[in-house]
Structures are given as C-alpha cells and as structure tokens.
Design brief:
Helix content is about 35%, strand content about 25%. By secondary structure, the chain is an alpha/beta fold.
C-alpha cells in the first residue's frame, strides 16, 4: 500500500475546515479557536483561551491524558500570511485536492499539522503521559502571541518531555532557526513644491538613502558567514514595504519602510540596529536639519524572536527522530516559535509536515504523502505516551 493511502481521512477534512477560516494576521482567529474548542469539548477535552490585549485573537491550550510530567507539547500557529496580489487559481480559503496535493492558504504553514493533531485526539484514550496542544496567534507577524501562551503553559502543565513545533520540515527534525527582529523606520522631511527641492527635505529620497545603507550592511554580513548550516549561512536584512509621498510634484514630507533582521544563532541583531541608528544620527539627520529643524528619523522595533539552536543529540531531537523515523537533522533560515519555547527552558524541536518551499506562495499546498507522514508520527506519539512512564 502506498504511503498516501495511509492518512487519516479526518486529518484532511479537518485541515480543509481549518483552512476555510480566514485567519490572516491582520484579522481575527476567534472563529477558528471556537471551532477547535467545540471539537475538543465534544471529545471531553477542556481547553483554555489566552486572549490578546484587544480581545480579537486568542491562543489555546488543551491537555489530553493525566496531568503528570513527561508530556509532549504539539504546538502550531493559527494565523496565515495574506493572499493579496497573489495569482491563485482558485479561492485560497476554499481548499481543493488535485494531483495528490491539498491546496489552500495555510495548508502547509501550518494548518495540516493542527488538523492532523485534532484528528488524532479521539485515539488518545489510554495515555499514561499527556499530550498538550498549544495553538498561538500572530506568529507570522513576529511571534507576538506565543510569549503569553508559553507563560500560561508553564503555569498550567507539569514540565514536558518535549515541545514539537510543527512547522513544515518534511518531518525532518530541525535543530536550529534564525532569530527575527521586525522594525519600522519613519522619516519626516519638509514638503515644498518640487521645483524648490533646495528648500525642502525629501522623506522619500532620504528613506531611499537609508535603504541603500541597509543593503550595504547586508554585504558586510555576507562576509561574516557564521554558520554553514543555514541557507544563506549569514544574517540577513530585508526591506519588505515602503510607503511615502503625496504627489509627484511635492517634495515628500513623510516616508516609512518596514524591514527585518534575521540573525543566525550567535549573531546579534541589536548590533546591526546600532550601526543603522548611528548612521541616521551622525550622518543623515544633521544634513536634514541644516535645511529644516523639524525633520526626524525614528525607528521602532515591532517584534523580536530569539534564534534557536539545540544539540542534535538532545532528548527532544532524539524523540522526534524516533517518532518520525527520519534520523537526519538540519537547520532552517525562517524564524519560528521554537526559540521562545527553548528560552523558557522547555526541550524543543521543530518537526512538521510539508515543505517551507510551498509556504507563503500562491497555490500553497501540502502533499497527501506528507499528511500521511504526520499521521504516522502522531500514531507513534500516542503509542509512546501510552507506555508506562520511564
């Protein structure tokens, strides 16, 4: 029998239902959370919500089995990235199956993992050690929801044996990811008619100069090459969004750009920001204020997530390898919530279905073979947690 035929049909149906909830980070995830709560309640499993400050989003924690030490935490984020401007061949929130693949926004990143976990819960009847479910919000915009979820998790459950973060890794155990700092820089210039550029201070052109400086910093980071385990093997800087100006014939008063730093383990994103701040303060801003005193440059840190690195022979990694049947390990360049769990002294590994190559793409998909693989992984989790504690 082919591996694709071994999947739990409920995994696919639950994944499809989860994908049907539009949980793009700018909106709410509460309808999805309510669905999961009801699913768990029908199975006799209680859960706890941890709301965001504005109440529009929530994390969810649930435990199946006895409340004892040695549990396995299965963790996933419920939010997805936007579909705006992407060339989808069908509605991204109406998932479809074609050529052995399940398509839809979030299928790969990472609702198939959550769907498979939900489908496995009815089989968790005789656990000797618990399985904990931890679902977060706003991972995609800087791991904003996970810190309060992890804090609550530490209060609610005894120390776990391992945390498995189910990001798409093709079920390979991942022992490291880069850190993340997201930032926004706002330039305030002085607007004049575009025929009087000598009297104005263009926020757009100043922002372009700053972006060019960041591009030059990236070249220096290339030379550091701190770890050949990552692709690319150095810290990176990216400016993802830039907005500014009023009209083509007005010297722009305001411009802002959003950017991020993805630092390898052992490198410090703060040092990159310090160099940028010094360039703004010592070189660019004095030139701006010679023309107009009210000009400014302000950079705000929007979010941070620590880099993650664990020894390949750590107990959490060895357990994930045993449960997945895949002995190899690797590191990844994307950021995830694993660094936050590790910082809270929880043994952590990343292991989940699908490939990051399909994440965030138009026509995002996960293969049915990968859903079968995570189903087998969860069968092994259940078997392992049903044995007498050792």
């Amino acid at each position: 029998m082919k591996a694709v035929d071994l999947h739990n049909p409920d995994s696919i149906e639950l994944t499809r239902h989860l994908v049907s909830f539009d949980t793009v980070s700018r909106g709410t995830n509460l309808p999805l959370i309510e669905f999961v709560e009801n699913w768990l309640r029908d199975l006799g499993v209680d859960s706890v919500r941890i709301h965001s400050d504005d109440g529009r989003k929530a994390n969810l924690i649930a435990t199946v089995g006895p409340m004892v030490e040695g549990g396995i935490v299965l963790s996933g984020h419920t939010d997805v990235v936007p579909v705006d401007g992407q060339a989808w061949s069908s509605d991204p929130f109406t998932p479809w199956i074609e050529h052995g693949r399940l398509y839809g926004r979030g299928t790969c990143d990472m609702k198939a993992f959550i769907g498979a976990v939900l489908a496995a819960i009815p089989k968790m009847q005789r656990l000797k050690r618990p399985v904990h479910l931890a679902l977060s919000y706003d991972e995609e915009i800087g791991c904003l929801g996970a810190p309060r979820m992890i804090e609550k998790l530490k209060d609610l459950v005894p120390p776990p044996r391992a945390v498995v973060v189910g990001e798409p890794t093709s079920m390979q155990s991942v022992t490291g990811h880069k850190g993340l700092v997201t930032l926004q820089t706002t330039v305030i210039g002085y607007e004049t008619h575009s025929s009087q550029t000598n009297r104005g201070v263009s926020a757009v052109m100043t922002a372009a100069r700053l972006v060019n400086y960041l591009d030059g910093l990236t070249a220096h980071l290339h030379a550091e090459s701190l770890s050949d385990s990552y692709e690319p093997p150095y810290s990176t800087i990216n400016v993802g969004v830039i907005r500014g100006g009023t009209a083509i014939n007005i010297v722009a008063r305001e411009c802002e750009f959003a950017w991020d730093i993805r630092n390898v383990y052992g490198s410090d994103g703060a040092s990159i920001l310090a160099q940028f701040d010094a360039f703004c303060r010592d070189e660019v801003l004095p030139e701006m204020r010679r023309r107009h005193a009210q000009t400014s440059i302000r950079t705000e840190i929007l979010s941070t997530a620590p880099a993650f690195e664990v020894n390949p022979d750590s107990p959490a990694v060895e357990l994930a390898q045993r449960l997945s049947g895949i002995p190899s390990t690797r590191k990844v360049s994307f950021a995830a919530e694993a660094g936050l769990f590790a910082a809270a002294a929880m043994p952590t590994v990343i292991c989940g279905p699908g490939s990051i190559d399909q994440a965030h793409q138009p026509n995002e998909y996960i293969s049915l073979e990968q859903i079968a693989a995570v189903d087998r992984f969860l069968e092994n989790v259940i078997h392992f947690q049903s044995q007498v504690a050792v």
